[in-house]
Amino acid sequence: MKPFIITIDTEGDNLWGRHAGAPGTRNAEYIPRFQDLCDEFGFKPTYLTNWEMAHAQPFVHMARAAIAEDRAEVGCHIHAWDSPPQVARTADDHRHHPYLIEYPDQVMRAKVAGHTQLLEDTFGCKMVSHRAGRWAMDERYARLLLEHGYTVDCSVTPGVSWQRQPGAPDGAGGSDYRHFPEQPYYMDPDNIARPARAGQRALLQVPMTTRASWIERSAPQLYRIPVLRSLAYRVAEPVHWLRLKRNNLASVLQLVQREAVRSPYLEFMIHSSEFMPGGSPYFPGAHDIEQLFADMRTLFAAIARTHHGMTLGAFAAQWQAGSSSAEAA
Fold first, then answer.
1. Is 144 helix (H, G, I), strand (E, B) or coil?
2. Residue spans of alpha helices (H) in the chain
3. 10 Å Cβ neighbour count for 101?
4. d(Cα 25, Cα 52) in Å, to the nearest integer?
5. Among 39, 177, 193, 232, which residue's beta carbon has the most beta carbons within 10 A?
6. Beta strand 2-10 with 129-130: parallel, antiparallel or unpaired?
7. Rg (CA), the chain
8. pLDDT tens-digit profile of 162-210?
């Protein structure tokens, strides 16, 4: 059976609302229900945790117990506007949500160091897994993660460009992953879009399970021309994700069926705030949450027929062992 990796961006309540200050962490009380569902199927989620959630005691207590019992993993997820040191990048960082890669090198270094130390002190284990806040990664960031002992990242979203998603108003937007590899690879620290050279110390990239539509691959401009965008979306969404939203279970199951054959793993993602009514724009009410959990149960049951649960860190260790064996042979 192939690995199934569950990644949760474990962060404050409804960050889509662009809070004036630090968001609440009520969603921490709703995460145990999700962990129970994972336990039922023998899946082992990776909670990629930001600053405020590392201080949310209901989550901290649950995660410590799950780590001790090898039922879950905690990794790093940095929201640059929340993580100390607090260095203003814009006139209102809580409104703009600037990308970490938009800060000066020394600020990036301090934020990565401080966040890593907080997580390791809080959860009592080495941090090895990471996902960038707002999916923004560059070569400087990859090298910093290596310096701090991280072995695996999952920030790449094949087929997706985040350049139209602004951070700092004077910035260039997010990362463009449209031409990045779709399968795991060790990232060249000098160019993270390409595999590292043999023998080069590098960070394993485990891209999200996504699949660009035939329109996105052959005529992406159709999604970007206003008069044609609506028609293009009726034919096909530009990129399909292994991610549940309202009324997309059928398309996600189709993606699973295709990727189960062509990919060595499946990677699912969700935000912790999506487990709470009103914690996201996707599931605003209690009924929506019940439907989400019903859809996750159906999805997990389908995946369990062909895949087994594995944390991101465990996948990286297995991939490294396989690579070493192949080199030795």
1. helix
2. 31-41, 57-68, 93-96, 105-123, 139-147, 214-218, 226-235, 249-262, 286-304, 312-328
3. 21
4. 7
5. 177
6. unpaired
7. 19
8. 999 999 999 999 999 999 999 999 999 999 999 999 888 899 999 999 9
Nearest CA among 282, 266, 265, 262 for reference residue 274 = 282
Residues 22-80: pLDDT tens digits?
789 999 999 999 999 999 999 999 999 999 999 999 999 999 999 999 999 999 999 99
Class of domain 2-210+239-328: alpha beta
Pairing of strands 2-10, 266-271: parallel
Spatial distance between the Cα atoms of 248 and 282, rounded to a whole number of angstroms: 11
φ, ψ (nearest 5 deg) of residue 118? -60, -50
What are phi and psi for residue 24, nearest 5 degrees?
-75, 170
Query: What's the token pair of residue 174?
Result: 């997010």
